[in-house]
Amino acid sequence: MSLFGKKNNINPHVSTYSNDAGNRSNNRTNWPGRYAGPTGSVRVNNGPLPRWVPAVVAVLVIGVLLLGVFGIPAITYRSQSENTFINRMLTECDDALTLAGNLSRNGGADSAATLGRIRSDIHAIDVINDMRSTLGGGHYVEPYVFTNLYSIIDSYSANLRLGNVTMQNLTDLVQALEALQATLNGLR
Hints:
By secondary structure, the protein is mainly α. The protein has 4 helices and no strands.
């Protein structure tokens, strides 16, 4: 009470209240749980989860499982296939170089058959190169390299049929095959 008989209005949110001035033994604190609660300044909602949360979690779990089942083998296959493609192209290129070394410079009787085998080796490399491009990895070797090799072989074959000298054709063929081999070795 105040001096004039009016009751004091006390704010219920005031931290301390005492009906006796100076006597704090009967203070009531209106801060229940003010400093109690979760630690680390994380607020926990104890209410029910929205209905869509379990569905989203289930979809994410299924997605991770599918990625593990299909993604990891695909990545492993791709790395293994890259090495297999490159090694196969190098084998074909080495065979073509060996055959080119066996070609005679004066146009022997078996030169046409050997040129056909060299062409098939180059074609095998070209097919592997195109296959990788089709699968989305781009070309290992630019296509103009194969066009150049085919034109050298065609020129060599034409000179053989006509009985002309094939020395320049053989030199060009060996140089182009060596350049292809160096490019393929660079892919390793």
